[in-house]
Amino acid sequence: MGAAMDLILWRHAEAEDGVPDLTRKLTPKGAKQAQRMAEWLERHLPERCRILASPAVRAQETARALGRRFRTVDDIAPGASAAAVLAAAGWPDARETTLVVGHQPTLGEVAALLIGGEAQPWSVRKGGLWWLSSRRRGESAAVVVRVVMSPDFL
Known about the structure:
Layout: E1 3-11, H1 28-44, E2 49-53, H2 57-64, E3 71-72, H3 82-89, E4 97-102, H4 106-116, E5 129-137, E6 140-149
């Protein structure tokens, strides 16, 4: 019997410039991006889904667009390591789909590490997401890219 874990990496939507970094809010365009992606996610997410969000205001606002309960995790704040995100998500052993609302370049580093074992981060557009699955059969494991989506396509 194969086990699987789905990990969804959702980058916060467009945010205003400024400092301090953690208090930057979404722009009106960013709020629309978050809402469009949240509507798409709501149609595709399983009922049971663990949602983890960075403490940054822009990530909190992006997560809130989904209208589901989420947990704020300081370990996935801006500047977090890919390893910290994977640890918070419980990759690849969590038993339920996990959605992480976070930042670049961290999310791109997670995607690059899981898919290609590369250190260079891949691009995750503002408000965009990568949906990855870990499939295990016996001793072998593989990472499958299920969806890469940008709010521009919704």
